[in-house]
Specification:
The chain is about 45% helix and about 15% strand. The longest helix has 27 residues. It is flat. The protein is of the alpha+beta class. The strands form four sheets. A five-stranded antiparallel β-sheet has the order 11-6-5-4-12, with no helix packed on it.
C-alpha cells in the first residue's frame, strides 16, 4: 500500500494552478473565452458568479481551482491565509479581480479581498457564539419553546382564529421552513441546543414540535411536550433499526473468497483509467479475504486492475475529523490518498465493491 499526500489538483494530472490572485488573473487572461470576457466587463460584481459553472455558466476553470472535488492547494491556501475560506467567495474575488484587470489593466488586491475578510470574521464570530447568542443574522432566536410562542405572536399579529386557520391551511410546511432557516435549527443556535437537551436532534422535528405546540397553546390545550419528544425518539430509533437491518442484509451477501468488482468511489488514478471505465473495459477485481461484521468492512486483495498504478483505495478529501479542542468536525489539513496495487490488501467499506448477484 502506498500513501501519498497530493500536491497537485488530480493524481496523475498536471494542470496549471494559480498560487495567488495575480497568477489567477494571468491564467484567465490566456484561457477565458473572448465572449465571456466581454460579459464579465459589463456584469455587476454581485452577479459575476452566475457567469461560470456551476452557478449558471459553462466555464469551469475557476471552480476547478477552488472546488473540493478538484482542489488546487496553492490558490486555496492563498485564500485561507487571507481569511477567505468559502469556495464560492473565493471564486467571486477572482472574478472581481479579473474584471478590474480587463477594464483597467490592473486590480487592487487589498480592496477586493477586504469585504470578504470582514464577512468571514463576522461569520466566525457568530459561529463561536451561535449556541448562546440571542440574535443570529439580525433575527432574534428564542431561548425555549415558550419564548418561541411569544416570537410567533409578534410575527403573526392576527387574531387567534386567523392564526389557527393559517396552521390548518398548511403553514406547518412554509412557516416551518422559515423557522428552520432563520432560527438556526439546521446550523445550530441556542434554540436547537435547547431541543438537543430534550432529545430532539432533527430540524424538521424541532419546527414540527414548535408549531404543534403553538397550535395547542392557542387552543389553550396541554401541549404534551414529553409525548412529542418520545414520538420523535421512537421514530428515529425505528429508522435506525430498519437501516441497520437493511445494511446487515446487504453485507451478508459478501462472502469470504468471493470475487468482487471495484466501483471507483474515490475517482480514478489517471485519465486513461476513467476513459476505460466509461467504456466498460476497465475492471478492477478483488477477492474478499476477511470480514468485519461490526463495521461492515471487507478486506480485499487486489487481483486485477486496468492501470499498472493500481486503484485509489482511500482519499480523505471528503472526510471529517473530530477536533477535541473546538469540539467540531473539521476537514483534514492535508490531503491523503492511498494507492492499492495488484497483490496488496486493504480494508474497505463493503459498498465500495460490487458482487455478482
Amino acid at each position: 500500500m502506498l500513501s501519498v499526500l497530493l500536491p497537485l489538483a488530480n493524481y496523475g494530472q498536471k494542470k496549471a494552478a494559480p498560487k495567488n490572485l495575480k497568477t489567477a488573473v494571468k491564467l484567465l487572461s490566456k484561457d477565458c473565452p473572448n465572449d465571456l470576457q466581454e460579459k464579465i466587463k459589463i456584469t455587476n460584481n454581485d452577479s459575476l458568479i452566475y457567469l461560470i459553472r456551476p452557478w449558471g455558466g459553462h466555464y469551469n476553470k475557476i471552480s476547478n481551482w477552488t472546488n473540493d472535488s478538484v482542489p488546487s492547494p496553492k490558490i486555496v491556501k492563498y485564500f485561507d491565509n487571507k481569511g477567505i475560506n468559502i469556495p464560492k467567495e473565493q471564486e467571486i474575488a477572482i472574478l472581481i479581480a479579473f474584471k478590474s484587470y480587463l477594464l483597467n489593466g490592473k486590480f487592487d488586491e487589498k480592496a477586493i479581498l477586504l469585504p470578504f475578510q470582514i464577512k468571514e470574521k463576522k461569520r466566525k464570530a457568530e459561529e463561536l457564539i451561535k449556541y448562546t447568542a440571542d440574535t443570529l443574522n439580525s433575527v432574534y432566536i428564542p431561548k425555549n419553546l415558550e419564548d418561541s410562542f411569544l416570537e410567533i405572536n409578534k410575527i403573526w399579529k392576527d387574531s387567534t382564529s386567523i392564526k389557527l386557520e393559517k396552521l390548518k391551511k398548511g403553514m406547518h410546511f412554509g412557516f416551518g421552513m422559515w423557522l428552520r432557516n432563520n432560527w438556526g435549527l439546521w446550523g445550530g443556535s441556542r434554540l436547537s441546543n435547547y431541543f438537543n437537551g430534550l432529545g430532539i436532534y432533527h430540524a424538521d422535528d424541532m419546527s414540527g414540535t414548535i408549531l404543534t405546540s403553538y397550535e395547542r397553546y392557542l387552543r389553550k390545550e396541554d401541549i404534551k411536550l414529553e409525548e412529542q419528544v418520545e414520538f420523535s425518539k421512537k421514530y428515529w430509533k425505528e429508522v435506525k433499526e430498519k437501516n441497520e437491518a437493511f445494511e446487515k442484509e446487504k453485507f451478508e451477501k459478501y462472502k469470504i473468497g468471493e470475487i468482487v468488482f471495484f466501483k471507483y468511489p474515490n475517482g480514478y488514478i489517471s485519465n486513461e483509467q476513467e476513459i476505460k471505465y466509461d467504456e466498460d473495459i476497465c475492471i478492477a477485481k478483488g477477492q474478499i479475504i476477511e470480514k468485519n461484521e461490526k463495521y461492515y468492512s471487507i478486506k480485499i486483495q487486489l487481483l486485477e486492475s486496468c492501470d499498472k498504478k493500481g486503484i485509489i483505495a482511500y482519499d480523505n478529501i471528503n472526510s471529517l475529523i473530530y477536533n477535541k479542542k473546538t469540539q467540531e468536525y473539521e476537514k483534514p489539513k492535508k490531503r491523503k490518498i492511498e494507492i492499492m496495487k495488484i497483490g496488496k490488501v486493504f480494508w474497505f467499506n463493503y459498498s465500495n465493491w460490487q458482487i455478482n448477484e
